[in-house]
Amino acid sequence: MSHIESSKNAALTRRKFLGSAMATTAGLTIAPGVLLFRAAQAKPAAQAVTSKVRWGLLIDNTKCSTGCDDCVTACKTVHKLEGHNRPETDVQWIRKLTVTDKQTGHVMSLPMMCQHCGNPPCVDVCPTGASFKRADGIVLVDRHICIGCRYCMMACPYKARSFEHEVVHDQSVSAPRGKGTVESCTLCVYRVDHGKIPACVEACNEAKHGAMLFGDLNDPESEISKRLTKYGGKEIRADLGLNTGVRYQGI
Amino acid sequence: MKKANFVEIEGRSAGYLALLGFLGIFILAALGSSFYMEHNGHHVTGMTNQIVWGMPHVFAVFLIVAASGALNIASISSVFNKTAYKPLARLSGLLAISLLLGGLMVLVLDLGRPDRLIIAMTRYNFRSIFAWNMILYNGFFLIVGIYLWTMMQRSLNKYTHYAGFAAFIWRLTLTTGTGSIFGFLVARQAYDSAIMAPMFVIMSFSFGLAIFLLVLLAAYNWTHRPLGDVIFNTLKNLLGVFVAAVLYFVIVQHLTNIYMAKDSGVEAFILLNGGIYTKLFWIGQILLGSLVPLALLYHPTWGKSRTLVGVAAMLVIIGGMAQMYVIIIGGQAYPLSLFPGMEVQSSFFDGVVNHYAPSLSEIMLGLGGMATAMITVVLAIKILRFLPESLADEVVDPQHS
Ligand code: SF4
After folding, report:
1. What letter does residue B112 receive in the DSSP assignment?
2. How many domains does chain A have?
3. Residue A154: which of B113, B188, B348 has the nearest Cβ?
């Protein structure tokens, strides 16, 4: 146990060192990239959601750090996902997975959240239509229609959804939630609609990891599409044929 | 064959009122439990983000499945023209409606937002098998209601055959639909199997008949009406066939799963190393729910004892609940496989066997559903003519017809 811990720490310090050493260059490359990206993708709030875009994420596992959960913290903060110290019933929209290959001992660390499937099983099974996919590919729950049957949670292969088991206090206006309904990652839809990037991606960038990239999968000129074309990106449980909007590199 | 004479039960005895009171207590406890769960949120139950369907669903699915099976007797009489079953057809229809009512009550009261029932009833996503089930359930009440009406109103008797046929088709669809709720969950290894739906149909035959037999024995015993050996033996033998058929399906289900290598993990979990689920499977479902009842029903002397046959029916119900528990809870307890062949860890219980302990409120809600089903029967047979005055051999024996 202790040597695992210390090797984790070693990895961390190495990463920190690399991080700060590269801060200047990274700052240069990321900032214009982000700016460009914002200019290209901002959508006036009045404009309707369109299927011309398909929002997606590309996660580079080789850059995702084992001990880091900045994306998780950012998500919890902006959506005010308070815990009640009851891990079995507390909601989680994004979590870090540690994946160990039993044969080689290779360890990966990666964030797991709603994969915003092109063919989402949660939407298929939802009896009321509360689970839905927006034209731009973001999978959401309409909290006014959800009856809390949890069938979508049974159907989701990624365990991406949580049931709100308790009364919700002090909600974030941009992410309304309610006891007795189901919720999950919204890809920060309210931020995206205002031309911003999801909070987790922003946090990852701020921490200089740059392991998450957000963008339009339909636009061949977007950075995410270019990276996908160049390096490829895998779906988790690709065997299920869900055409996920979240792709991973290095798994 | 004498014509069966249907008569309401008197329903004024102290025993009758005590029974109503007894069932009423369970129903009140269920309503209280539901209020408690809704008021505090589901964290007061044993259900979690890992085990999202718990004890209420075990009860609800059991009752819904049994409801369709309870209609069997009526179907045999009207669809397959077996006159021996005719006197039992009304009770069969009544029991079917009552069990469905009890099951749906549990399902609805467990929703995160039961107050939004109206949304569930008015907004349908037609891609969802769950939405189709709601239509099937509502239709079941309607069709079985009409069926009962054609049986009870003499001028409509000529339509009984058609109504019975419609009800027969409808209920097969309904159970297939209920089984498919699980069959559609491709992400869960335990459920991803085409055999689920037909297995549910056979299970419904067995559970429904077990409940029917118990209700019949109780009703005729407590009202001191004669119940002859002909009808008793017919039902008893039929139950034996159904129990054996379920056992056969269970064996096929597990053998095919073992054969498909990707499911061997979840199979080993249920059959060998799943702790409580393994015990419930072997002891609850197989031994108590199948082998012991088969022995009791087919034993030359035990099979003649009404008490022992009643015990067998009781065991079939207990075994059925165990089977539901293993399917519903056991299937969720086994971790989802995100990266096949790899070890996954997280703060969200990835890669570990999930823990579940049902809370009292969940159990009370489930029992309340059963009580609701029973109280509906108990009240209905007092108000309307569901039960023949006598089921003595000369009334039902087809030899006399
Ligand atoms: S819990 Fe809500 S969103 Fe999920 S399937 Fe049920 S109604 Fe749909």
Report:
1. S
2. 1
3. B188
